[in-house]
Automatic annotation (TrEMBL):
Keyword DNA-binding tagged: yes
A Gene Ontology BP annotation from the UniProt entry: DNA repair
Function: Putative 5'->3' double-stranded DNA exonuclease which may also contain a cryptic 3'->5' double-stranded DNA exonuclease activity. May be involved in DNA mismatch repair (MMR). 5'->3' double-stranded DNA exonuclease which may also possess a cryptic 3'->5' double-stranded DNA exonuclease activity. Functions in DNA mismatch repair.
Protein name, entry field: Exonuclease 1
Main location: nucleus
Gene name of the encoded protein: LOC108821748
Intracellular or extracellular location(s): Nucleus
Amino acid sequence: MGIKDLLRFMKPYILPIHIQKYAGTRVGIDAYSWLHKGAYSCSMELCLDTDGKKKLRYIDYFMDRINLLQHYEITPVVVLDGGRMPCKAATGDERQRKRKANFDAAMAKLKEGNVGAAVEFFQRAVSVTSSMAHQLIQVLKSENVEFIVAPYEADAQLAYLSSLELEQGGIAAVITEDSDLLAYGCKAVIFKMDRYGKGEELILDTVFQAVDQKPSFQNFDQELFTAMCVLAGCDFLPSVPGVGISRAHGFISKYQSVERVLSVLKTKKGKLVPDDYSNSLMEAVSVFQYARVYDFHAKKLKHLKPLSQNLVNLSVEELEFLGPDLSPSVAAAIAEGNVDPITMEAFNRFSVSERQPKKPVPSFKEQEKGSSFLLLPLSESEERINLKRSAGEAEIGPETVLEAPKYFKQDLDLHKLMLPQPDKDHMVIRTSNPSPAPDNNPFKIRRKTDEIKMEEYDLQELKVSFETNGEAMDVTSRKEVTIDLSKLDDSVIKQDSEENIEKKRSVDSKDVVEIQGHANMTTKRVRGAKPRAESFKVKTSYDKKANKINKKSSILDFFHPL
């Protein structure tokens, strides 16, 4: 709830801001303000306590904003509410009654089939529970985000952190939706921060130092400002009928004393002022000034500020309106999120959130490294290749890369856009099996792996040089095969002209032989290719008498130029 109409009244002092202003500093987070906002997106699931991850959307909402702050190099300090303040019991009961009425209305709309109207009532009925806070704490711990559970009001704990220097663990500002932070005396408060980091900022020092600004607070100090807020109505004490924020500001500006204002109110309002209003007002002002907070250095409770003279002499029981005192061990257990501050029972230490953290998107290099294709090396260079099968990877040294890669123009352009140029000194290739691909192309030339026998001619030299470059997952590589045909006579090879006869002839790759479903190899002269895991061998034979190709081959083979 906060202070009724305070932000509207202070609008001239509120300026637009981007959270980047606080880069490099520590900023406090009023956790329940973000939890309430996040709960709106899954209010029906939370109210009905359904199973599934949808009801954890409030955590996603919260962590998205935490990530936003971290993006701008801001250290978030999350502060959660603890136990209930005794003087806030009446307000809490009234809120619970309203939530119950809204829940009943939501269920009625749900039975009627009007889901849209039901969701609106569920949003009014939803409340942040200790269980929800505990779920958030588990995520904060896993993400190494600093947090603290206040013994009572998170606002008071945030005000305490705001009073400390940054070097002592203090904070430079507070992000909240609750105007109570101003009554507690927080120096800088940011309201209505959206998911882009834009919000509204109010700095108390500028309020007290402004000269020509209206409304004027020139003669105010923090104590008078807090008294004005209490007179206007707050969670600890409702206002006297007819006294709002403007009237409260006028009383404090004119009389400059809380006691004199109370005297005037009794005179002007008469019976409208409750008999115990004076005591209740002084207690409410004291809560904003002296509430109990957790000192994380001493690991025990302390007051927000040193007690005034009229409170020092009160007994421990009489000071419970500031928050009952707790032993250091209990206070520390609450602050660390190990004990429920409402029931004082320990949380299940093994309970974890059902929310799974989002996996970071891998970089393109990581995707490339995880690709699956196989390079078949030369049979004569097998000894130079060290296959590291235990690691699932094969490292190919610089001696294996024999030539520069060759591409078609469109392949080269795509390669330059998507991948860095290959490193000839070191390549890491996955040897895992690729995903199976259907081999049902009816137009594909089917070749047998029959050997072509050569009776009169021996194959002196076979060299296969290749490089493979491709995308991360599906790679089609073109290979170039060079065969030494120095001993083959002219009857085997159809020559275009006698001037072009040389000892070595290059055979350009044209027929595709699929290897492992990803890497393709092409050849023109060779009848078939028989891939193996560690070597690539081609055996050819020639029938001298028949002077023709094996009859088992497809008739389509006759249409290929020799």
